[in-house]
Amino acid sequence: MSFPSAENDVVILDGGLATHLEALGCDLRDELWSARLLLENPAVIRQAHLDYFAAGADVATTASYQASFPAFVRRGRAPAEARALIQLSVELAIEARDEAGGGLVAASVGPYGAYLANGAEYTGDYDLGEDALVEWHRPRWETLAESGAEVLACETIPSFTEARAIARLLADTPNVNAWVSFSCRDGDHLGDGTPLADCAALFAGNPQVVAVGVNCTAPSNVKSLMGHISGMPIIVYPNSGEDWDAGNRRWTGISDPVEFGAAAREWRAAGATFIGGCCRTTPDHIRRIRHEIG
Known about the structure:
By secondary structure, the chain is α/β, with parallel strands linked by helices. It has 12 helices and 10 strands.
């Protein structure tokens, strides 16, 4: 499978990896989140990828979102072990893709805020500047660039400064393809308040960038956010529509896969080329997207 090359092409992404891992019985209450299972139970990650392919996804997004070198080192692992674990995240997705009979592997590049584990991936409230962010990301970036994944999924980026750092890393690795997807607080702005249009413009015309868009935002924000992206393929994979109650540390509301699928049909009609789900979406959500947009 290749990236969309015609107006009618569409790629269906997977849904929330951590959400499905929890449904498979995994306890992810840990600062490593789903990456914890690279240490403890890699087979269940492979199974989660297989379940999303069976539901109709064209893409397996790896369990490397929170699998940074500093996170593993903080857990007592040597840098060489960290590199092997990050590589393992891609190997598991490739194995699942091959067993499923085809598809793409997207190596997840989570934001610096995910490492902080304090919600900064939604606010962009960082303690590092652009140069430091480049160097923080570089070891994992270089590992994933050589991993065999077809694309790096630079996702949940909440900060204009971090977007500039990613643009620099892309320039340093000219043979790498990537998508860049931003974490947005409303229908117009990133988590740090930067207009999405300004961030999307950083990547306009870049032949390495297969799509620019949004994830980890409410479905109700998607069509407005899409209006701020032009001249490049658009990727959208929002949350389920439930709300996070930080005080009680639980999700509230009801997510209906049928409604999510109907919304996906509207995103496709509005021009989205890559469509899937993020937090709290499941194989059922992806199955409905496949049903609605084929």
